[in-house]
Write the structure tokens for this entry.
Amino acid sequence: MASPETVRQWLEQQGLVNTGTLYYNLAPAQLYEHALRNEEAVLSAHGALIVRTTPYTGRSARDKFIVEEDSSREHVWWGEVNRPFSADAFTALKRRLFAYLQRRPLYVRDCYGGADPRWRFPVRIVTESAWHSLFAYNMFIPAGEEEFDAPFTLYHAPGFKAVPELDGTRSEVFVIIHFGERTALIGGTPYAGEIKKTVFTVLNYLYPLQGIFPMHCAANVGREGDVALFFGLSGTGKTSLSTDPERPLIGDDEHGWSPDGVFNFENGCYAKVINLSPEAEPIIYALSRRFGTILENVVYDERTREVDYADASLTENTRASYSRFGMENVVAENRAGHPRNIFFLTCDAFGVLPPIARLSTAQAMFHFLSGFTAKVAGTERGITDPVPTFSTCFGAPFMVHQPMVYARMLQERLHQHGAQVWLVNTGWIGGGFGVGRRISIAYTRALLRAALSGALDAVEYEREPFFGLAVPKSCPGVPAEILQPRQLWADPDAYDAAARRLQRLFAENFQKFRGALDGELLQEVPAELLTV
């Protein structure tokens, strides 16, 4: 392992001459002491660190940029997701950022993205705050005794605010990645998710160049070695459904699919904890109340330091960051074989999609490129309709290459390994938001267990008319009427109208991909989903 002095010398070679104290790879207990002494955090009643990142309680997606430079220019999917930033402006901003960090204490963490030793990437995270270094310890693969050679380096300074007129940024917040220099800059926001997702974005660029399929998904494995993947956007249940007492967890969010199988990009979880309860999610609840966990933007009693998980007054996006170390029921190697079942999770607030449906390869490609979920419209008076969200590959903000690069990698692996893909609606049934109800997590777990065990292989299926989905007529532990969403609506005509509306939304979104799929694949997708 490198020493603080060799790391300081390395930073000087990169242009950061630091005259403050440098803390290198501190242990969690040391980082606790620093975070509390620096007044970065308070201690919860059960040993977790509580931090606040207000007013930034989520990612600042519009403040993310990719430096336009020769080595990566032709690979990047330029547009709304990947906005270009000039190399000269990056150099100037980095110089100002390094001047800010020059006299400050720095916390440096060496780690890896990717649990498979064959494919892992070295990452060095340099930050001005102890709790963010603990976050990096929780979330990424720890380095051993080896010294890093040319790590991808992330400089993180939440206290440094950009000046848009001077720096060329959109606001005081910036997340800028330079693939040619193997460097990322984050400033102006303390929200820890920016660190996590910047590393994920980097891996989403690097891995496809090596033939590895990067995935925004959770993964677990059965006792017989059967791997399952859970794709889904925020709020669809990725973490909750993959954290299963009957199936050891590989990881809850980011994985790669190599020729050898599936491996976790991370070493921890970053779970949403709003309305967390020991009854619904006992494992995550227990992990949120232990030493080493970071609770982000939760509300707590000032005297007792007891946490109120139901209080969303700061944000709905309350989070817990915890390491796999000490967790029970996890895959020790942090990787496993090729998946047998793949679940696309969607929270359909329109109340249209069935709780589970079996997909063909063509349908899997369509829904992977669509990346649909629906969010409930905010608290503005009079607005009750759900807001559709289409995020290609179930993670558009983190995809650097063109979407078809990732879709073709999925298609190739489905053909090669024969995994079955399922579409699972964790949202509303019996009506849309405001009329119907959200399907219980107990029913969803029963549906997943049936799919994983093979219990759904022998049942009878019927084709629903709007999306061409194969829907099982029965499932152990689930009432038959739950499986057919139209039957649960009080007004079937209203269901048909909502389904046709959702069809149109899918079709409008899919126009940008229409010419990329061949005719054979499109034959299995209803024309109403393809033509506006």
In short: The first strand starts at residue 22 and ends at 24. The radius of gyration is 23 Å. Residues 35 and 130 are 5 Å apart (CA to CA).
